[in-house]
Amino acid sequence: MRQPRHERIVQLVRQNGYMSIEVLAKELDVTPQTIRRDINMLAESGVLKRYHGGAGNGSSVQNEEYAMRKVWNQSEKERIAKLVAEQIPDNASLIMNIGTTVETVARALLDHKSLRVITNNLNVASIFGNRQDFEVIIAGGVVRPRDGGIIGEATIDFVRQFKVDYAVIGISGIDEDGTLLDFDYREVRVAQAIVEHARQIFLVADHGKFGRNAMVRMGHVSQVTALFTDLRPSDRLVQELENAGTALYIAE
Questions:
Q1: What residues of the chain score a pLDDT lower than 70?
Q2: pTM for the whole thing?
Q3: How high is the pLDDT of residue 59?
Q4: Tens of pLDDT, residues 49-105
């Protein structure tokens, strides 16, 4: 599990593009040797790229391993999920897509009654599987082995059959200008279809997604009803949200 110091290193590198070991050590008040070990660990997991004397932004073409994403920022995800669940009433219809934060929202919804849930996420379907008063509809398509996501043309066609009350969607990165970014164009196309077929779109993203680098454009914050996160975004992103009329919920 990543330590708070690791989170701060990632945040600093994403803000600056590159940080030297010496500057990171001074900023975090630890030895250069400690920072070097941290960078090695983060580079091995694909979060950052190791350079001689420092670290830069990680890959824009490949996401971190699912097992690692599942435990990162878990307490933050749980606070976000609780806040989202408070905005969704009983007897609602939802589409929930791929992502560890979305799965945490699913667990927070287990106290609800009579939900109808459409999902392209096998993990979400499993979380809801024992609820007798829930109707869970799984999208058809190609199963992505690494995280149980279902993607492809058949998935898009399936999603387009519905119009639901709420969509709960995750994202890999949110740029300063409000652009929503992800790694897999096939997953992005499904997410775009979900956005088009829900009355309210709830975007869930912990603070680690702000400024994160990914190469595929999913859309813009102006297309979502509300962003649920755990820390206040940058002033520029807050302004983008305000300009778009997108609500901001912060799970303090």
A1: 1-2, 45-46, 58-73
A2: 0.77
A3: 56
A4: 787 788 877 655 455 554 555 556 678 899 999 999 999 999 999 999 999 999 999
In sequence order, what are the residues at sequence separation of 6 or more whose Cβ sits closer than 8 angstroms to the Cβ of residue 133? 113, 114, 115
Q: Are 51 and 28 in contact (CB under 8 A)?
A: no
Q: Nearest-CA neighbor of 144 among 172, 104, 102, 184?
A: 184
Q: What are phi and psi for residue 168, nearest 5 degrees?
A: -115, 110
Spell out the residues 6+ positions from residue 149 whose beta carbon is closer than 8 angstroms to its own.
97, 98, 120, 121, 122, 143, 187
Provide the pLDDT for residue 71.
53
Convert the pLDDT of each residue in 13-22 to its tens digit.
Answer: 877 777 889 9
Q: Which residues make Cβ contacts (< 8 Å) with residue 146, sequence separation at least 6? A: 65, 66
Q: What distance in Å separates the CA atoms of residue 22 and residue 34, rounded to the nearest whole number?
A: 11
H-helix segments, the chain:
4-16, 21-28, 32-44, 66-71, 74-86, 100-108, 122-128, 153-159, 185-196, 235-244
Pairing assessment for the beta strands 54-57 and 93-96 based on DSSP bridges? unpaired
Q: Which two tokens stand for residue 235?
A: 């002033």
Q: Distance between terminal CA atoms of the chain?
A: 22
Please, where are the H alpha helices in 87-152? 100-108, 122-128
124, 102 Cβ separation under 8 angstroms? yes
Structure token pair of residue 123: 């993990």
